Amino acid sequence: MKTIIEPFRIKSVEPIRMTSVSEREALLKQANYNLFSLKSDDVLIDLLTDSGTSAMSTKQWAGIQMGDESYAGSPSFYRFEQALKELAPFKHIIPTHQGRAAEKILFSILESAQSTDSSKTQIIPNNTHFDTTRANIEATGSQALDLVTKQGLDPELELPFKGDMDLMRLRDLLETQGDQVPIVMLTITNNSGGGQPVSMENIRQTKALCDEFNKPLFLDACRFAENAYFIKQREAGYQDKTPKEIVQEIFSYADGMTMSAKKDALVNMGGWLALNDDNLAMKARNVLILTEGFPTYGGLSGRDLEAMAVGLEEIVEEDYLNYRISSTAYFGDALDKLGIPIVKPVGGHAVYIDARAMLPHISPNDYPGQALAIEMYRLGGIRGCEIGTVMFGQQVDGSEKLAAMDLVRMAIPRRVYTQSHIDYCIECLAEVNKNKEKLRGVDISWQPPMLRHFTCHFTPK
Ligand code: F0G
């Protein structure tokens, strides 16, 4: 059979409240046309993020009943630790309440382990830092450097591993400023670059470079299982390996990882920092106790640790990953056939529409990404997220700079929507595309001094 079905049945349902176009027009006005200000009850299909929005399985809910809430030494922690070590056998596993907490702890201890010459800025390279990772690095006074390959920045180019690190530039950095680099990072998949995967070959070679210069390699592994499935599909030599074996190989090259369990551990809240270095682990646990909690719960309930333990088993199931990657591609391919420009190839967790290319009659200064996101909600009740000049254009000195691209991300929550929900989104976007000449840009009528996309007000032109 060619049809790929959702590899689950639905046992518990959450109703979607239907709304009309005229109702949504009023709701948009009330929200000052900022989709973050909408109540989620007023959204039909919520594609704002794939983070923390997964549906849990019967086994995960059963695990929740088993949660042991002891302050110290809970068996739920040991179950979680064992499940993670099965995939990523790091010596020290430190739970945190979500990914950015693990990042904050890691970068604060690297700072204290800083090199002898404190006048030099510390530099942390990555293929592309996610925005919280970048912000946590910059908050310590260090520099976050993106070194993804040039091909990874071209939305049209169809290549299998557009998340790869540019090894030449990494070598150059390590040769010329290596003393300022405490760790090298690699984000799998590369969320800020369109959810593009990193090849095993690139991970291996990044590790070889790290070894040559004696630097630890840390993975930002939020979507590690999706990355592994792309390796299985696209990289020679991996077709007959199981996703679990591929995941194990990926982690065998790393010295540590930060993780948001809200993605590829199929839970609504959770994360961790894992690493091999004893001294760093001791420092991390000291900060953890100050900011998150005792090392066997780290800001989470025992039941959350149980849900993560089960999620880690389910995330590497081949049928799940086949459905996950195929269903995201199904959405993207349909938009491509309609002539809607998208970032290619389709990534693992989201489809990104190139709004600047789709709406050339709207000046980039008038935020075409926001105009498209508003129209998708108005017409179909679909909530996506502008990733463009609204998000990145505001400079520290208050000036405005165009972002490299104006994208609208439609991130797909895991195991939540069925194919008919996606068909509905495709139909809505076909309709938007048909009448796109009528769309107008927006003005920003109010904005806070930073991170404006969450709260700013828009007025349609
Ligand atoms: N790293 C990557 C690659 C991410 O995508 C995220 C979160 C984080 C770190 C931070 O994890 O949210 O648990 O603190 N990404 C979400 C998104 C928010 O919508 O892409 P967190």
UniProtKB/TrEMBL annotation:
Cofactor: pyridoxal 5'-phosphate
Keyword Lyase in annotation: yes
Transmembrane spans: none
Superkingdom of this protein's organism: Bacteria
InterPro entries: ArAA_b-elim_lyase/Thr_aldolase, Beta-eliminating_lyase, PyrdxlP-dep_Trfase, PyrdxlP-dep_Trfase_major, PyrdxlP-dep_Trfase_small, Tryptophanase_CS
Catalytic activity, EC: 4.1.99.1
Key words, A-Z: Lyase, Pyridoxal phosphate
Domain Aromatic amino acid beta-eliminating lyase/threonine aldolase: 46-425
Enzyme class, first EC level, given as a word: lyase
Family from the record: Belongs to the beta-eliminating lyase family.
Self-association and partners: Homotetramer.
Annotated protein name in UniProt: Tryptophanase
Species assigned in the record: Litorilituus lipolyticus
Upper lineage: Bacteria, Pseudomonadati, Pseudomonadota, Gammaproteobacteria, Alteromonadales
